Amino acid sequence: MKVALDTNAYSDFFRGVPSRVAVIRSATRIHVPLIVLGELRAGFAAGNREAENLATFESFLSRPRVSVLRLDEETTEHYARIFLQLRKIGMAIPTNDLWIAALAIQHDLELCTSDGHFQEVDGLRLC
After folding, report:
1. Cβ(120)–Cβ(100) under 8 Å?
2. How far apart are alpha carbons 39 and 6 in whole angstroms?
3. Which domains does the chain have, with CATH numbers?
4. N or C: which end of the chain has fewer CB within 10 A?
5. pLDDT tens for each residue of 56-106
6. Whole-structure pTM value
7. How far apart are the first and last CA of the chain?
């Protein structure tokens, strides 16, 4: 199984949430969207243990089965489609989450998240 992590999934994993630990440990590939990278770094900077959290995160990113997903032109096409689909049903989700969903769909990944609004995105698989 190949997965993309939302910010809350990474946090759940390191807090030891059993369901999240099981999914991440069994994944063959773990992808961290660039947007999640930014959200996590911002959270670390605002917290009391920035250096410790950043060191743990850097160690996580250095694992062979972990990679960072970057945006490209194709991502913008998925973003636009998702934006329009949600607009038609009157659903707004945070802009960062639109980008995360676009990357997961583009790369055919299951998105690990606790955010319920992702359930509204057509074609997005969740774990």
Report:
1. no
2. 9
3. 2-126 (3.40.50.1010)
4. N
5. 999 999 999 999 999 999 999 999 999 999 999 999 999 999 999 999 999
6. 0.94
7. 10
